[in-house]
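Example record used in the benchmark description.
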Amino acid sequence: MPLVSVDLDSPSTQRTLGAADNALLRRIDLTTLRLFIAVCEEKNLTRAAAREGIAASAVSKRMNDFEVAFGVSLFERLAKGMALTPAGEALLHHARVTLLNVEKIAIELAEYSNGVRGHVRMLANLSAIVQFLPEDLSAFFQAHGLLRVDLQERPSGQVVRGIEEGAAEIGICSAAAETRRLEGFHYRTDHLVVVVRPDHPLAGHDRLSFAETLDFDHIGLHAASSIYLRSQYAATEAGKSMRLRINVPGFDAVCRMVQANMGIGLIPDRAFEVIGAGMNLRAIPLRDEWARRELKIVVRCSRQLSTTGRLMLDHLQAAEGQEPEGEGSGADTAARHRG
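Model output (structure tokens):
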């Protein structure tokens, strides 16, 4: 039978499942799921047992009993360890989501006991966190002071995966990322700029095409970032390769490397305004169409968000129209910091 993630107490589940199925599902206890994940991660039953502080024979019996109860094989027993079968892969996904949800229950109940009245988990890419979320979350907390937000930074692709797997309710990623079956909503737009030292040969330009930068050394963001991946693709389209000097983890590191004369860098305009404008660097807007980027909010299902999640989604959707007057956007902001 297929392994599924089920709410045992929901009426629809009770109608769908027969008595035999319910009996099987009630054999999925949290300890067995935790031990199963340990075996998957360690790829060895003995190491998994030592990690969880339990006898290896007890772990083996739980795994065997589970396989017998559901009529599936979870592992291929190999000479050098254990490999997951397709059924094991399915169970691993659901086991992680289940344990994460149990952890959320414990955390959120503890927060209610401490006076917190709601909690939302978010994943966002670096561009959103540096450029927009500080002000947007500050405004959110002014209106909802008793709520709590858990925000983690991830590359856009991992934001999508995290929302799919239930690691968070709300994600913000590049609109260029493949969001598959997630619901998406517009969040903000930014514009990529080339960051250079004032003595660099490109420093006198008002605007540049990305192809014009490819004869110079580049400071690249980490390999999973949407900016790095898109710039590599653009170089290929131009029939050239990037002269990549070094990959760094963030926009501040890009600016510092440019400042140290290691090369030129590509970051969003608002990130330069926050980080690079006071470093005696210049930001030259790219005129390529792909340099204007949309950031998107993603959720699994907006109708199923928690009350706090719904408040956050509504706030973020409205945030772009509530920027203080005088804040520029795109290339105009970057142009103000060229000198």
